[in-house]
Design goal:
One of its GO terms (molecular function) is acyltransferase activity. Keywords: Acyltransferase, Repeat, Transferase. Belongs to the transferase hexapeptide repeat family. By secondary structure, the chain is an alpha/beta fold. It has one domain: Hexapeptide repeat proteins (UDP N-Acetylglucosamine Acyltransferase, domain 1, 3 Solenoid). Helix content is 16%, strand content 27%. The protein is built from one helix and 16 strands. It has a six-stranded mixed beta sheet. β7 and β8 form a beta hairpin.
């Protein structure tokens, strides 16, 4: 059973890497050290505008947009280092999610997100500042070291 689980996990990782390669082939700038869920939605209308840096994770059903047809607007949407984009959240076109930030599940990001914060809600608002994240936006427990 353990061998089967590791086999399935390695196939999944291979599919994720192929998907990243595919997006990069068509103009996106996605680090191979980033992870994107197989069900995450990147804007295929303007793939050149998708930028995802090292150590970031885009969870299932999250949407990263890079265009707005109603305004005729195409822009670069950036997810910087060690960010976590939560499930079913939406990042609107032309925005930047600062390094080490977390976008909560279901959030709608309408403005740039500063570094090292957690944002949640619709529209997304800062709910916590000065956080510390590791790879894939994992929140590090630094509260223990303060005591």
């Amino acid at each position: 059973m353990k061998l089967f689980k590791s086999f399935v996990f390695s196939i999944r990782n291979f599919l994720i890497l192929v998907r990243v390669w595919f997006f990069n082939f068509f103009g996106a700038k996605i680090s191979y050290k980033a992870r994107i869920s197989l069900s995450a939605n990147l804007d295929k209308t303007n793939l050149r505008g998708v930028v995802i840096k090292d150590g970031s994770y885009v969870a299932f059903d999250a949407v990263i947009l890079t265009h707005d047809f109603t305004r005729g607007f195409h822009a670069e949407t950036q997810i910087l280092e060690n960010c976590f984009i939560g499930a079913r959240s939406i990042v609107l076109p032309g925005l930047k999610v600062g390094p080490g930030s977390i976008v909560a599940a279901g959030a709608v990001v309408t403005k740039d997100v500063p570094p090292s914060v957690i944002v949640a809600g619709n529209p997304a608002r800062i709910i916590r500042e000065n956080i510390l994240t590791g790879q894939y936006g994992k929140l590090l427990d630094h509260a223990k070291s303060q005591y």
